[in-house]
TrEMBL record:
Keyword Lipoprotein among record annotations: no
Reaction catalysed by this enzyme: 2 R'C(R)SH + O2 = R'C(R)S-S(R)CR' + H2O2
PROSITE patterns: ERV_ALR
Transmembrane segments: none
A cellular component annotation (GO) from this entry: mitochondrial intermembrane space
Flavoprotein among keywords: yes
Protein name, as recorded: Sulfhydryl oxidase
ERV/ALR sulfhydryl oxidase domain mapped to chain residues: 23-123
Length: 133
């Protein structure tokens, strides 16, 4: 099976929005969906996880470099996990760890960094104005 993307394909000038909805996700769509899943999972992770919950979160994160369809992304994540192991001690720590890793990717891609103090607002509670209720 061919990888979803290679390092040469990683940055595309083509807009993902120009593809028909029935096409398989490109690397940008997959990345956005994966970050959404991971950040939302962290936002609802327990403040005091059991050892079973901590082990399962670590299993989820450590499975990504093995299973992720973008070989370049998977390889980079594997190296990131080795250098900076996930903090699964609780919801706040995990959300912070993910935000910092996401910001590292954003920086590499020339994108704006996200304010990690706003992870709950973005991924769990929504803005205080109630616009997402």
């Amino acid at each position: 099976m061919a990888a979803l993307a290679t390092a040469a394909d990683f940055r595309s000038d083509r807009s993902s929005d120009s593809r028909p909805a029935y096409c398989p996700p490109d690397v940008e769509q997959l990345g956005r969906a994966t970050w959404t899943f991971l950040h939302t999972t962290a936002a609802y992770y327990p403040d005091r996880p059991t050892s079973w919950q901590r082990a399962n979160m670590l299993n989820l994160l450590h499975s990504l470099p093995v299973l992720y369809p973008c070989s370049h992304c998977a390889s980079h994540l594997g190296e990131t996990l080795r250098i900076n192991p996930p903090d699964v001690s609780g919801r706040v720590a995990l959300s912070r760890w993910l935000c910092e890793r996401h910001n590292e990717v954003n920086e590499r891609l020339g994108k704006d960094k996200f304010n990690c103090a706003k992870t709950d607002e973005r991924w769990k509670d929504g803005p205080s104005d109630g616009s997402c209720d």
